[in-house]
Specification:
The chain has no helices and 11 strands. By secondary structure, the chain is an all-beta fold. Strands 2, 4, 5, 6, 9, 10 and 11 form a 7-stranded mixed β-sheet that branches. A 4-stranded antiparallel β-sheet has the order 1-3-8-7, with no helix packed on it. It starts with a strand and ends with a strand. The mean pLDDT is 96.
Length: 114
């Protein structure tokens, strides 16, 4: 089982990034997919969640209207489009799969700074 995140990096405030999480080793289409983040000294928090069929999404209040989660079950990939980024979005972002089991990726760093 693998969840491999990519797309993180350094971006200026107001900029955009798109994170990807490529899954393998399990039946991706049967799993709820989530993005979490953890900033230094803070607890890990749920950013966004999308159901297995992709029709229902949930967002943390802090990212509503700026972030969009989506998935492509044919490609076994979940995405997080992040727009209007703020310094407080700086964190390690983790992909998470929840179904019969729970799987975590290794994380990708997002830094928002001028």
């Amino acid at each position: 089982v693998q969840l491999v995140e990519s797309g993180g990096g350094l971006v200026q405030p107001g900029g955009s990034l798109r994170l990807s999480c490529a899954a393998s080793g399990f039946t991706f289409s049967r799993y709820v997919m989530k993005w979490y983040r953890q900033a230094p000294g803070k607890e890990r928090e749920l950013v966004a969640s999308i159901l297995s069929a992709g029709g229902f999404t949930i967002y943390a209040d802090s990212v509503k209207g700026r972030f969009t989660i989506s998935r492509d079950n044919a490609k076994n990939t979940v995405y997080l489009q992040m727009n209007s980024l703020k310094p407080e979005d700086t964190a390690m972002y983790y992909c998470n799969a929840q179904g019969e089991y729970i799987h975590w990726g290794q994380g990708t760093q997002v830094t928002v700074s001028s």
